[in-house]
Specification:
mainly alpha, Transcription Regulator spoIIAA, 2 domains, six-stranded mixed β-sheet, 8 strands, elongated, SLC26A/SulP_fam, transmembrane helix
C-alpha cells in the first residue's frame, strides 16, 4: 500500500529488526507554572489591542520629553517637521502641483457621482488634506474624494432622499453621514479596533472594487452620450436598458465626439506614462489639459446650444460652515449614522491599504490606528466645513509617489492650489462639458479592474475566488451596498468555515529521519504499522471540537479498514500531533475525553505529541492529563512512536 511501511519493518529502528527502546533521557513535556489570572488577562488584552507597544517610546523619559513625544504621536508633523528642508520642499512642491492638476477635474466629476454640486468636490480637497497633513503618518497618500466612496455615498443617500426634489435635505444628510463616517474612523483608531477592517478579505476587496469600477463607468454613459433622462438605479441591466432605449433620440453626437476624443487622449497619455516612468507627469496633467481644451472649445463654438451638457455655474469662495446643517436629532439621524458607518469603513479600508502599500515601497512604517484617527478627525472637521467623505486616492497617491513627494506637505500644496481655484478660477469651469468629466472618471476607474489579481486569486484559492466574484457580480447586477454586503458575508463565511472545519492530516515518517509529515504532501513518507498519527491544524474550540473528534474517528475507521484488507497489524496507538493546536477550551477538552473513552473500548491507546504551553496547561488544570497519563504525552511524534516500539515488536 502506498505510504505504508512493510509489516516486518519498523521505521524507528536503526536498520535492524529490533525496535528502539524508550530512551531514559527523553524530555518530558513541561507544564508551565500557573499564571496569575489578572496578569494572563492583561497579557491577552495587550496582545489584542496594543501588540505594537505604542507607549514604548515613553519609557524612562523625563516629563518634558514625554509631552513632546505625546504631541508628536497625535500630530506627526511635529516629528518630521523638525528635519524639513528646502530639498524636501522642492520634491513636495512638484508633487503637490502635479496632484492638484489631477484632483481638480476629478473632484468635479466625483461630486456628481455623489449627486452633489461640483463645488463640494473641490471643498473636500481643500480642508481634509490640511488636517491629514498635520495628523497623518503616511508620506505618500493623497487625500480627497474618490470614485468608489462617492458612488457608494450617492447610492445610499439617494435611497433615503431624492436629491432633485429635496436638495437641501439631501445635502444635510450627506454632511451628517460624513460626520459619522469620521466618528466611526476615529473611534476604531482610538479604541485600537483597526483589526476589524481586516475582516474584509483582499479577494472580496478586489471583486468589490472591480464591480464598483464597472458600475461607475456605466453611470458615466449619461454624460458621455449626452442622455438627459437616465435611470436612478445602478445595476448593469437597468443602466444598459436606459442607454439603449435612448439610442434613437437621446444621444447627442457632439457630446459623444467630445467624450470619445478626450477619452482616447487620456488613455494614450496613461499608456505613455506607463511606458516611461520619467513621463509620469503626462497622465497626471492630461485631465486638466482636457478640461481646459474642451471648455475653450465649447465656449467658442457654443456647443451647449447644440445639446452639449455643461457644468454651468460654479460658486466662488472657500468652504462655508456646515455645522448647523448636520442632523443631531430627528429621523434622519439614524439614517446618517448607518450611511456614515458603511461609507467610513469602505473609505478606511481603501486609505489604509494605500498607505501600507506605499510605506512598504519606501521602507517605512505607518501606524494603522493613528491613520484611522487622522482620517476620522479629517472627515469630522470636513463635515463641518461643507465637505463630504474624503479618503486616500490610489490614482493621486500613485502620482504623488512618482512625482517625488517627500512628506505630507504635498497635500498642503494641493490644498493651496484648490483654494486659489475656489477663490479665482471657478467661473472658468462654467462651459466645461459633462462628457469630459465622464471621460476623466472612466479613465480614473479603469485601474480598479484588476484582472491579474483575480486570475491569481483563482489559481491560489478557489474559495477566495468565490468571494471575489460574489462581490463583483453583487455590485454590477444588484447595487453597491448589496455587493459590499456579499463581500463582507463571504469573508465572514470563509472565517467561520476555517474555524469550524479545520484541516487534519495523517502523518508518516520521512525515510532516514525522525521527521513526520503529511503523507499527501510527502508521498515517500511511510506510516508505522500499528500506529496512526494525525495532526490537527487549528485551535480546538467549542465551534469545531465535535468536528475534530468525529474527523479523527473517521480517519481511524478508514485506516482500520485498510489495515484489515492488507492483513497488517491492527491499530494500537493513535498519536495526535498537537503543535498547530495553539489553544483549547473546555469543549475541546471534553472532545478529547470522549475520544479517549471511545478508544479505550477498542483497546487503542491515545497519545498526545508536542502540546504547547497553553494547551498542556489547560489539560493539566482540567485533570485530563492525569486521566490520560503523563507517560502518554510526548515532546515529539518521534518520541511517541519510539515509545510504542516495544509493544508493536512483541506483536509482530
Amino acid at each position: 500500500m502506498s505510504g505504508r511501511a512493510h509489516p516486518d519493518v519498523n521505521p524507528v529502528t536503526d536498520g535492524g529488526d529490533l525496535p528502539i527502546k524508550s530512551s531514559p533521557h527523553r524530555h518530558k513535556v513541561g507544564v508551565p507554572p500557573k499564571q496569575n489570572m489578572f496578569h494572563d488577562f492583561m497579557y491577552t488584552f495587550k496582545e489584542t489591542f496594543f501588540h505594537d507597544d505604542p507607549l514604548r517610546h515613553f519609557k524612562d523619559q523625563p516629563k518634558s520629553k514625554k509631552f513632546m513625544l505625546g504631541l508628536q504621536s497625535v500630530f506627526p508633523v511635529f516629528d518630521w517637521g523638525r528635519n524639513y528642508n528646502l530639498k524636501k520642499f522642492r520634491g513636495d512642491l512638484i508633487a503637490g502641483l502635479t496632484i492638484a492638476s489631477l484632483c481638480i477635474p476629478q473632484d468635479i466629476g466625483y461630486a456628481k457621482l455623489a449627486n452633489l454640486d461640483p463645488k463640494y468636490g473641490l471643498y473636500s480637497s481643500f480642508v481634509p488634506p490640511l488636517v491629514y497633513a498635520c495628523m497623518g503618518s503616511s508620506r505618500d497618500i493623497a487625500i480627497g474624494p474618490v470614485a468608489v466612496v462617492s458612488l457608494l455615498l450617492g447610492t445610499l443617500l439617494r435611497a433615503e432622499v431624492d436629491p432633485n426634489t429635496n436638495p437641501d435635505e439631501y445635502l444635510r444628510l450627506a454632511f451628517t453621514a460624513t460626520f459619522f463616517a469620521g466618528v466611526t474612523e476615529a473611534a476604531l483608531g482610538f479604541f485600537r479596533l483597526g483589526f476589524l477592517i481586516d475582516f474584509l478579505s483582499h479577494a472580496a476587496v478586489v471583486g468589490f472594487m472591480g464591480g464598483a469600477a464597472i458600475t461607475i463607468a456605466l453611470q458615466q454613459l449619461k454624460g458621455f452620450l449626452g442622455i438627459k433622462k437616465f435611470t436612478k438605479k445602478t445595476d448593469i441591466i437597468a443602466v444598459l436598458d436606459s442607454v439603449f432605449s435612448a439610442a434613437h433620440h437621446g444621444w447627442n453626437w457632439q457630446t459623444i465626439l467630445i467624450g470619445a476624443s478626450f477619452l482616447t487622449f487620456l488613455l494614450t497619455s496613461k499608456f505613455i506614462g506607463k511606458k516611461s516612468k520619467k513621463l509620469f507627469w503626462i497622465p497626471a496633467i492630461a485631465p486638466l489639459i482636457s478640461v481646459i481644451i474642451s471648455t475653450f472649445f465649447v465656449y467658442i463654438t457654443r456647443a451647449d446650444k447644440q445639446g452639449v451638457q455643461i457644468v454651468k455655474h460654479l460658486d466662488k469662495g472657500i468652504n462655508p460652515s456646515s455645522f448647523h446643517q448636520i442632523y443631531f436629532s430627528g429621523h434622519y439621524l439614524a439614517k446618517g449614522i448607518r450611511i456614515g458607518v458603511v461609507a467610513g469603513m469602505v473609505a478606511l479600508t481603501e486609505a489604509v491599504a494605500i498607505g501600507r502599500t506605499f510605506a512598504a515601497m519606501k521602507d517605512y512604517q505607518i501606524d494603522g490606528n493613528k491613520e484611522m484617527v487622522a482620517l476620522g478627525v479629517m472627515n469630522v472637521v470636513g463635515s463641518m466645513s461643507s465637505c463630504y467623505v474624503a479618503t486616500g486616492s490610489f490614482s493621486r497617491s500613485a502620482v504623488n509617489f512618482m512625482a517625488g513627494c517627500q512628506t505630507a506637505v504635498s497635500n498642503i500644496i494641493m490644498s493651496i492650489v484648490v483654494l486659489l481655484t475656489l477663490l479665482f478660477l471657478t467661473p472658468l469651469f462654467k462651459y466645461t462639458p459633462n462628457a469630459i468629466l465622464a471621460a476623466i472618471i472612466i479613465n480614473a476607474v479603469i485601474p480598479l479592474i484588476d484582472i491579474q489579481a483575480a486570475i491569481l486569486i483563482f489559481k491560489v484559492d478557489k474559495l477566495d475566488f468565490v468571494a471575489c466574484m460574489g462581490a463583483f457580480f453583487g455590485v454590477i447586477f444588484a447595487s453597491v451596498e448589496i455587493g459590499l454586503l456579499i463581500a463582507v458575508s463571504i469573508s465572514f463565511a470563509k472565517i467561520l468555515l476555517q474555524v469550524t472545519r479545520p484541516r487534519t492530516a495523517v502523518l508518516g515518517n520521512i525515510p532516514r529521519t525522525s521527521v513526520y509529515r503529511n503523507i499527501q504532501q510527502y508521498p515517500e513518507a511511510t506510516m508505522v504499522p500499528g500506529v496512526l498519527t494525525i495532526r490537527v491544524d487549528s485551535a480546538i474550540y467549542f465551534s469545531n471540537s465535535n468536528y475534530v473528534r468525529e474527523r479523527i474517528q473517521r480517519w481511524l475507521l478508514e485506516e482500520e479498514e485498510k489495515v484489515k484488507a492488507a492483513s497488517l497489524p491492527r491499530i494500537q496507538f493513535l498519536i495526535i500531533e498537537m503543535l498547530p493546536v495553539t489553544d483549547i477550551d473546555t469543549s475541546g477538552i471534553h472532545a478529547l475525553e470522549d475520544l479517549y473513552k471511545s478508544l479505550q473500548k477498542r483497546d487503542i491507546q491515545l497519545i498526545l505529541a508536542n502540546p504547547g504551553p497553553l494547551v498542556i496547561g489547560k489539560l493539566h488544570l482540567s485533570h485530563f492529563a492525569d486521566i490520560l497519563g503523563y507517560d502518554h504525552i510526548f515532546l515529539t511524534v518521534a518520541d511517541a512512536v519510539e515509545a510504542c516500539g516495544p509493544k508493536l515488536s512483541d506483536e509482530v
